[in-house]
Fold this sequence. Notes:
Layout: E1 14-16, H1 18-44, H2 52-56, H3 60-75, H4 82-110, E2 117-118, E3 127-128, H5 130-141, E4 142-144, H6 147-172, H7 180-187, H8 202-211
Helix pairs in contact: 1-4, 1-5, 3-4
Amino acid sequence: xxxxxxxxxxxxxxxxxxxxxxxxxxxxxxxxxxxxxxxxxxxxxxxxxxxxxxxxxxxxxxxxxxxxxxxxxxxxxxxxxxxxxxxxxxxxxxxxxxxxxxxxxxxxxxxxxxxxxxxxxxxxxxxxxxxxxxxxxxxxxxxxxxxxxxxxxxxxxxxxxxxxxxxxxxxxxxxxxxxxxxxxxxxxxxxxxxxxxxxxxxxxxxxxxxxxxxxxxx
Length: 218
């Protein structure tokens, strides 16, 4: 006798989580906005940034060294009135305070950017490498399902299939098919008189694992 085809979808070893995909896309958008803002702030303070190499080179140490170099060159001019010298000394101090902090924040930000940055002449047009960003989003959205969770799901399917077989047996023998009253009778509580069908799907199992009583298996 040909075995009845199962109506259940097997649990994949990798589950594509749409919620995580949406969260990751939002994260990429926030990262890009933050990078654009940093580039704009540096340029507003007279710093040229032509490409990603120059952007990543803006470490606190490099910024201090470059400001000091420019300051010594400027203040080393022989014909520089004291008043101007004092003003420029204060201006360099302010610039260093601003840009060193910006550089610290930038380097911390760049640790969270795992793909190439395409720096544009206009800061707002700076983008991430599209293919690399999509690969990152896809990787973050594909969640490996532990073997124990896959096995748990497989056992639940067996329970559901056994209930289906019981329902078929009832139909063949002209008996009342199993209702939720039967289930709740077994469970010790009442229920409406409607046919009971046990069911489970991969997305339900995934939600139960990540947010239910099985999340300790993560």
